[in-house]
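User: Structure tokens for both sequences below?

Assistant:
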Amino acid sequence: MAVQGRTRTGRSRADRRAALLAGYRPLPGAFDEFIDGQGEVRPHWEPFLSEWCALSPAELSQRFGLADRHVRDTGVSYRVHGDVDARDPGFGERAWPLSHVPLVIPEAEWQVIAAGVTQRAELLSTLLDDIYGPGALIAKGLLPAAAITGSPDYLRPLHGAPGGGSLQLYAADLGRGPDGRWWVLQDRTQAPSGTGYALENRLALARAFPDMFRSMNIERLASFFQGFRAGLVARSKRVEPRICLLTPGPLNESYFEQAYLARYLGFLLVEGGDLVMREGRIHVRTIAGLKRADVIWRRIDGDFADPLELNAASALGVAGLVEAVRQGQVHVANGLGSGVVEARALMGFMPAIARQLTGEELILPNIATWWCGQPQERETVLDRLGEMSVAPAFRGNGGPDDAPVLPGELSETERDRLRQRIVARGMDYVGQEVVRLSTMPVFQNGRLEPHPMTLRVFAASTPEGWKVMPGGFCRISDEPDARAVSLRNGVRSTDVWITSEEPVAQVSLLPTPDRIGIRRVSGTLPSRAADNLFWLGRYLERSEATLRLVRALLGRLMDADPAPGRSETVKQLAGMLVAWGAAGGGPARKDPVAQARAALHSLDDYGSAAASIREARRTASVIRERLSIDAWRLFGDLQRQLVPEDGRKPSEGETYEIADRALKSLAAFSGLSQENMVRGPGWRFLDIGRRLERGIATCRFARQFADSHASGDSLDALLDLTDSQITYRSRYLLGASLLPVLDLVMLDPYNPRSVAFQVERLDAEIADLPTLADDGMLEAPRRLVLRLAADCRTTEAERLDRTSVLLFEQLLMGLSGAIADRYFLQNSGPEGSRMTSIA
């Protein structure tokens, strides 16, 4: 029986193999990574294919689901430039397009790629030193001056500055030609992206195929990031430097990656507004004053880095950054002027430059390039215009004219216009050989199909020299056209597996115990991060208040045994939804069910639960490096609950259940923040935001439902809205009465929902926040919260009326403003001048 079982398994594997390979035909004239010229699977792919064939279709689907859930739960995403819709809860975020088949490269072949990328990184680093230094290559005639000075990425103010064009991270976009040789399609030196996405691709596929990952001896990536981080630390003048990752902001196409890398590497994620130059040094604006920044890993274009000396229109950079670089007080990686060597105009000169600087030929040649700024090369391009790809010689503004074109596919009129532009201003164009890219397998329609691909390989400058990531960022096109220009809009990505003959060493970014000292003090909290944590807490509490209103309203509408005064309570509840912008007016105002539904789902009403969660998610996306995966997953769950995809209007009962489930999800987030977040400044600002918003909402509820003429049902609604029913019933046997209810929700310091309790927590949190001056004087937020605490302790329930409750509400709102003025300062001003710098 065992023999028969193995026979059946063997046949099953053979059948699955045949099904996977059915119809797999490499594209004509293209090298295929998976199938050789004889139609056989290449040897280094066999272990992978064998493992796949051992899985049934159901098992394979389950493995794919694991990878896809990892991508969804961790929020891996990207944006397309200009694709931002304010009505979209994700603000233009798109789910990461993961392909489930990795690119497999054997170790021997990878060593050649790594050697070529290392050589090119060293070459470009030397070239940058010459461009921003002696200019020997231009003097010798090996490099035309116009090919450098004509580039918008050549930054004249950085000439002679230490590290003006230095490289710490280099990336090469590679393609394999029909002959099987790898070619450099483009150099990336400005601010290379993709390292974080490569790491996420690895985590997703390692989760899906852990057994395969181990058995094939796949090289690990952690050592690369370890070396990169060590290289940045070595650039600082201090033993424990403060390293910042400078991001363009949350609407940038790769913001997820930037936040992810900041968390993974332990860097401080900052925007230009978080930084300021004082006395020749760059500092981070924090809640404790100015803190020195030693190293800045930039993810913005160099010319946007300093509006004072570079691009005056930039709102992304730091005024004075160039001067700080010139004085050697901060190191910027990559150097602000490093983007100049990305220009396609330089690619035609690289072979000669390599021979001059290294005495060697390029291990990885770039595609043949003719810069039209030279008469002979321009004539070559014009003569062979129909055979070439024509591309901009330098980086432009990202418009349609920046994309390469195939003149052979243009109309006669369009080709003539292009020819005229090249003749009129040839230095702006290059002609390049049209390279046919290799293909790799993609799982589609139940089988493997060949698709064109490119490979981005990264090299980092470390204290031990250049180190190449043993993997990379592979992009796959959905288009069958294997020419390089067709991949400018690649739509999938996958992991790159470098196989080894020997078991690979386990590497972690965690330092060994003897290399790190113990500390219990939280790191630096930038003012911007504190601001966003504060408002994250407020938005979450605001959405909870709306959900409680909706649940209280619908619960009374569906009650089969209504209490006296019920109709008036329903009007009050519906009126509150309209008053604070959760539900619109108009004809729907007369239908409380429609109002409840709008307050739950409408994105057009700024106070609705869906709108508040949308704002909370957007705020959280700005500080996602400070939130756990579980917290981010809860945002996704809330968004799916409150923004139905089918557009169907739920019934009264369904609307009630949606509100109830959303409240449970918010309670889960509250539990995560209370139990899992370290009690540092970040947690304090999140909690302060929640406490303030809860106190303000409770005051508004009390003014609406606990006036001197309040019915028992209105008081009962107030207890529902403040989640105080159980506490009240345990203390009082009679029904809801005005003074006991007011005391419980306003003044009782033991009720975690009362205003007094919120004020006590605010007092404790604000007392633990840092002060700017050690002069013994109370700062404005502390003074206000102490006044509030005194009022809560001395006021009696008998003296509470609408006016006194309104005073509590106004004091809380004044406290919010005082906190913003003190801690969320982003621009220089009177208080900014008082910020002290701590080295």
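Moving on to the next sequence.
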Amino acid sequence: MRLLPLGSDRIRRLSPLLQLHSNTVRCFGNKQTKTREFNKVLVANRGEIAIRVFRALTELNKTSVAVFSEQDKLSMHRLKADEAYLIGKGLPPVAAYLAIDQIIDTAVKHNVDAIHPGYGFLSERSDFAQACQNAGIVYIGPTPDVMARMGDKVAARQAAIEAGVQVVPGTSAPITSAQEAVEFAKQHGTPIILKAAYGGGGRGMRRIDRIEDVEELFRRAFSEARSAFGDGSLFVEKFIERPRHIEVQLLGDHHGGIVHLFERDCSVQRRHQKVVEIAPAPALPAGVREKILADALRLAKHVGYQNAGTVEFLVDSKGQHFFIEVNARLQVEHTVTEEITGVDLVQAQIRIAEGKTLEDLKLSQETIQTNGSAIQCRVTTEDPARSFQPDSGRIEVFRSGEGMGIRLDSASAFAGSIISPDYDSLLVKVIAHARNHPNAAAKMIRALKEFRIRGVKTNIPFLLNVLTQQSFLDASVDTYFIDEHPELFEFKASRNRAQKLLAYLGEVQVNGPTTPLVTSLKPAHVNPPVPHVRPGSKPPVGLRQVLVKDGPEAFARAVRRTPGCMITDTTSRDAHQSLLATRVRTFDLAKISPFVSQAFPQLFSLENWGGATFDVSMRFLHECPWERLETLRALIPNIPFQCLLRGANAVGYSNYPDNIIYKFCDLAVKSGMDIFRVFDCLNYVPNLVVGMEAAGKAGGVVEAAISYTGDVSDRSRTQYNLQYYLDLAEQLVKAGAHILAIKDMAGVLKPEAAKMLIGSLREKFPDIPIHVHTHDTAGAGVASMVECARAGADVVDAAVDSMSGMTSLSLDEISRYSAYWESARQLYAPFECAVTMKSGNADVYKHEIPGGQYTNLQFQAFSLGLGEKFDDVKKMYREANLALGDIIKASAAS
């Protein structure tokens, strides 16, 4: 049965059942033999140590329970537990994990049998241990009275004296005034050291070398201790100069059994914070080691210590050791002891708390032996180049050092993790285990060098400097080691090549190439002349009125009935994509639009949207492509608009779910789009059909395009012969195409081939309009389009004179339209392809590079200083094409 716990008034009102439960727990302290198996254990902590305990619980087949603060709602320790519950709502980040009432309430509510405190936070608070016991929950650690005695550094000091263990001269009780510290300094001399009476980890600790500094440093230490531990009480002791910091790991059961698991060397410290820990302590004389281990056991037996704990000593240069404190909890550095002894300390803690004896755990002093050497490094998110200033943010890249002899204990160490400024900066503990100290150091150095952590700064450069010092490798270090080696703070800047490459690729993807422009031309200071349009004049009727009134099928019939060959003007899309890197602004398109509406109502369509323009509008011009479409539609209500749709890719570069394609087409029609030229760069019909169906359902005209490649007039090239195109066209007509299109993006459709292809399509499909697009890369485009018209094509693509040449066709009858673009083109001089392409080039029939690819590839070659080798680039393109099986020639950017 579970009862609500906590609060002295509430506890007094608890039923006798709870008292009986408490007696069962206290029987462990009375050395009875009754045991209790835990089913569910809560860890009152966060981060790495919480996960460490969860793993031990899982191996013991017990349910693990996490608690987490609001700031930790996405933390890894919450996800690693079997159950997790929010505590400290509305409290500051640290205060949440100090909320004893809420933690106990959560434990009782969810039938928790025991609580493990980890280290830090409440791990050395005897009132927390007592609250657990009062609530009938087992506290995995020492009993409250032992914890109270050992957690109070002054009381622990007195216990050591009673046990006959030598202590450092110091105060016999906590002090709360600077004057008391001054009096001690006068009596024993300086240096002295102030330590927090109710906590550790270097907080509230100050070394004082001059009596005149006592008052100021006492005030700082008192304030820091009160902030960290809720009580600013300090004790003061004589400072032992040049000591080694040695600590002994203990395990005690509730039946009087006590063993040590040898010692650790924690002398590598910075500002009293441990940085590197070693087990066993290297180069420690055997006689000194035996005395320290014996004194640790003597003190533990004197106080009746249970569970895991650590007795800490200072060893001076003469080999004398002095007791300094007891950590009545699990230590951060417990890992190195586990590595050299093979004992799982956390599982031992849990079993002991259940009432098991050391004998039950097969642990005796005779059987506990050391195997090799282990080193632990605390990798923290601190910048050693800036006085170890804590860093926070998102880890962009994380690659750990692993391999034989390496153990990693972590919680937030993964790509995408958010490092919060609210908690301790420990990121991952790296533990190396080898046959001896130098070998362990070598493994650790190798592992740390393998780490790649980007997005936040870490202390890895500092750790590497420490580990490579000869004095460290010789194991002759004391607590002065870091202070006396300024070279430890000299760092070689990380080259960070991978991250720089990713940043560069991202920059290019978003903002375009950062290589120097081929041309040094600047945008001209011109104001393009806009042909006059009579104000208020109504645009003449165009084909769009047929589409709006009668629908796509009637529109297609009207096109087919129109005598002669109609024209699609590509000036507003494909022309400036090929000639000016798609950089033309909506502003310039809109200025000429009223004139186009008045002067060219007979056009089949204006190609002005889709393809690469959609992407470039957003990324480079920072314009909304939807607003562009709506703006142009309002200015040109009479001429059909045409866009390029990449089938299932829409206007992107990867496949999208079908519902996105359908919604895109629906919005496009509502915004003013009429004709959807649907193509696939590999002529893959299923991809084409997705786009065709989406365009048709939206009410648009479906123009199914076949990407042309090969040469149907060359009978030796059998892969893309005439039958290939006829079969493909038949599939597209059956799929619902209103118009068939041939899209020759490479400009390889020769006049003779054009006559054969279009003539055969017209013969097989007499009722469906045929639309032809080519690039005039070779200079034969006009002749090819003439042959298409003679063979029965209904529409061909063209661009105005001043926006044509090499990639589009010329029109010589619209001089005022051409004059506008001739002037406007000068605004985009830095992106001008004509600097490198002076004329057409018939070698396109060999390399078959699509126009959009050709201009971009040439621009890149010149930008990289490879302009003279562009002929070689084209040859390699041809070889790659043939090696890949002669792929369809289509520009993905179109």
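User: Anything stand out in the second?

Assistant: Residues 285 and 866 are 69 Å apart (CA to CA).
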